Amino acid sequence: MKKVLLIAALFVTSFGYAQDITPFTPNSLNDGVVYYLPKTAIDIEVTATKITYAPGDLCQYASRYLRLNNVSAQADVHWEIKEVKVSSAGIPDPDNAYMVKVKDKDVASNVQLSKDGIVLAINAKVDIEDETGKKATSPATKKLDPKKYLTEEILSTTSTAKMADLVAKEIYSIRESKNSLIKGQAEYMPKDGAAMKLMLDNLEEQEQALTQMFAGTTTREDQTLHFYITPEDQMKDQIAFRFSRRLGIVKADDLSGAPVYISMESVDPVPTLDPKTAEKKKKMEGVIYNIPGKARVTVRSVEKQYFKGELPVTQFGTTEVLVNDLFKNKVNTRVIFHPQTGAIQKIDKD
Questions:
Q1: Packing angle between helix 193-215 and helix 160-183, nearest 10 degrees?
Q2: What are φ and ψ of residue 10, in 5° steps?
Q3: Residue 48's CB: how many other CB atoms inside 10 A?
Q4: What are phi and psi of 53, to 5 degrees?
């Protein structure tokens, strides 16, 4: 999910004309561009892995012939939490909507927006990261077809014990062939390095396929979900989501899983302006932007702590005004906004 702040404003390439900034009133007939100041949601990105085990046909002989201990004869499917990432995400704040009214004779805007209308830069260009990628399913063990490598003698036997004995001997024979190639003692040595690699890869695949008849196969599939929590100061052990070893990630109200908690508190909050100063700021000509505060956030279960750190939170901060005096004629001013918090990331001139 794209994490952006719905904060947009209209800037002109000729900054000689002033702009009016007024609180937005729904259904008003004024012409202009409406933008929202963001409020923060804590984005908890949880990746869990589904682990599927299928026993091999010869699993009961794994210890006897290949010294593979603890090989189960029972199929199993369970989940494990692979990773938990916690970050700040911006969502539009309907209580902080503003309209930028452009006066007569203003020219076209010189502002870069995201595809969602989020302001990225003024009089500058920034690279936009591609966040459309998805986590791919990745098998931990490549599943091969061992029947491709079974000899006529193995296929003709009707005894499982005899088959296990013959397959094990075939595995050891493959290992001996690999060692002979590596040591340069094979009866028929490859002519060059590429041929050597091809032969070793083929032998490795044969060994893996036959070994799976004893050890079984294990595949892993990742699932990623996002949970969004509204920040509150002095939040203590609120359930963010639940996790079940049998079902994986489940919602906070699903009692089939064990709870994972989130706690947070503000850190060095930005001082709140008195009402007169705040009202005066609203009347200044320019675009209002965020100065986020910080929160100390912890995400944990009873057994494990997944995250502990500080994150920007707009609700614990304040706003400022980017006044039009910054954009005087003959001064090439460039402003870049932080794409997730709406704070100013960089201002330079030439």
A1: 160
A2: -110, 120
A3: 22
A4: -115, 130
**Hey, is 47 helix, strand or coil?**
strand
Q: Domain map of the chain by residue range?
A: 50-79+139-220
Tens digit of pLDDT for each residue in 92-151? 887 777 665 655 444 334 667 666 666 777 777 888 765 444 444 454 456 689 999 999
Q: Could you report how far apart the first and last alpha carbons of the chain are, in Å? A: 37
Name the stretches of the chain with pLDDT < 70. Answer: 1-35, 98-111, 113-118, 129-143, 269-286, 323-331
Question: CA–CA separation, 234 vs 179, rounded Å?
Answer: 64
Please state, in angstroms and rounded to a whole number, the distance separating the CA atoms of residues 340 and 89: 6
The pTM assigned to this predicted structure is: 0.76
What residues contact residue 121 under an 8 Å CB cut-off, 6+ apart?
111, 112, 334, 335, 336, 337
Contacts of 149 (CB under 8 A, 6+ apart): 170, 206, 209, 210
Q: Using one digit for the tens of pLDDT, what is the confidence trace for 317-345? A: 888 887 666 666 556 778 888 878 888 88
The values of phi and psi at residue 14, to 5°, are: -100, 105
- Check: CB of residue 268 under 8 Å from CB of residue 293: yes
